[in-house]
Amino acid sequence: MSYYETLKSPSSFRKLAAAMWRKPNDPHIFGSVDVEMTAALAFLDDYNRRHGCKVTVTHLVVRAIALMLAKHRELNAKIGFASIKVRNRVDIFCQVSSDGGRDLSGLKLEGTDQLSLAQIAERLARGAADIREDRDPTFRRTRGFFRSAPLWLIRMVLGLMSLLANTLNIHLPKLGLPRDPFGSAMVTSVGMLGIDTGYAPFTPVARCPVIITVTRVRPRPWVVGDRVEPRPVLRLCATFDHRVIDGYHAGELSGEVEALLGEPQKLLTAAEAAPGPKHAHGASEARLS
Questions:
Q1: Top-level CATH class of 29-245+256-268?
Q2: Where do the structural domains in the chain lie, given as residue ranges?
Q3: Which tens digit of pLDDT belongs to each residue from 211-252?
Q4: Which residue from 127, 162, 198, 229 could staple onto 107, CB 3.0 to 4.6 Å apart?
């Protein structure tokens, strides 16, 4: 029997990953922050009750990251062929699992900093349903190609995609190749997998400066005054592109995101925060992630 055998029927993402990543020589830096979530969980219960939606912790994180990148425009950048390019819009790419967790895709929320929490939740739910129920024609085409093509061909196609979308900034949405397809940042939720700490690698064809992993909210020891109490804590894990974000920026971003989650009413849009009657449209239970 041979020492190696060929993996049978790999998923489209597994083949994509095998073709895409090579030697680990990218300028990654890593960091994490623990956030006490008592106020955020209470906020979620109240928000979902008043708005009749299903906003989760992940949606809070998506909006917080978008607001911070809108505030610190120099960090919403990508490395081009001859210069560092700063985006004029904040788009967040959220990863979505399909095929019972065997495959991985995602969708980009354009202008995320301008969206309310309810709009973020609704657009992600609709897009995820289209992917999982095979109603997204672009995902269907790309998944079929990556499942059937050999690795050498996938590498060539990915190189061409990166040249067109990133280096030349060509916009070809009808071919499934929009300009800047992964946007300003990537957010992936692994809380439902029971993962406490985990860092995600960058997708080489993406040029976003940060990817955030949202783990599960769980009770952890927390210092309150001179006591240690069990509190619900979220651990956010981040991978940064050191070419765009250094340690100072990473610390600044993590501190501001932690502050937003600690006072989640600051995540409301101006219209939502304005005084006036609120109209409930039903109730739903807030999930942790």
A1: alpha beta
A2: 29-245+256-268
A3: 999 999 999 999 999 999 999 999 999 999 888 888 888 999
A4: 127
